[in-house]
Amino acid sequence: MRATPTTEALVSAFVLPGSTSEEVVREAIEGRLGLLVSIPMLAEFGRALQEGFGWDGPSAAEAVAQLVRIGVME
After folding, report:
1. Which of 21, 36, 53, 56 is deepest in the core (most CB within 10 A)?
2. What does the alpha-carbon distance between residue 52 and residue 32 come to, in Å, rounded to a whole number?
3. 21-68, pLDDT tens digit by residue?
């Protein structure tokens, strides 16, 4: 099974522990779900973490890198 999350869902997965979005990302980490991501989505996700939630550059970059590792590029 594959899922294409919204940027908002990805942000929720990283900033709201225990959220449904976090569960979806966890399923992708565990290999039970293919998480479809794209370069524009990943760029928007990194910007949202920094601009909307005050994450520093290296922390946001690590979150993006994690999605690159577990995601399936569209």
Report:
1. 21
2. 30
3. 999 999 999 999 999 999 999 999 999 999 999 999 999 999 999 999
What is the longest distance spanned by two Cα atoms in the chain? 33
CA atoms within 13 Å, Cβ hemisphere of 48: 18
pTM beyond 0.85: yes
Apex 38 CA angle, 37 and 41, nearest 5: 90
How many structural domains compose the chain? Answer: 1
Q: For the segment 21-30, what is each residue's pLDDT rounded down to a tens digit?
A: 999 999 999 9
| Amino acid code (one letter) for 21 | S
Q: Amino acid identity of 43?
A: A
Per the structure, the complete domain to which residue 58 belongs is given by: 2-73
Bridge partners of residue 72, in order along the sequence: 36
- 71 three-class SS: strand
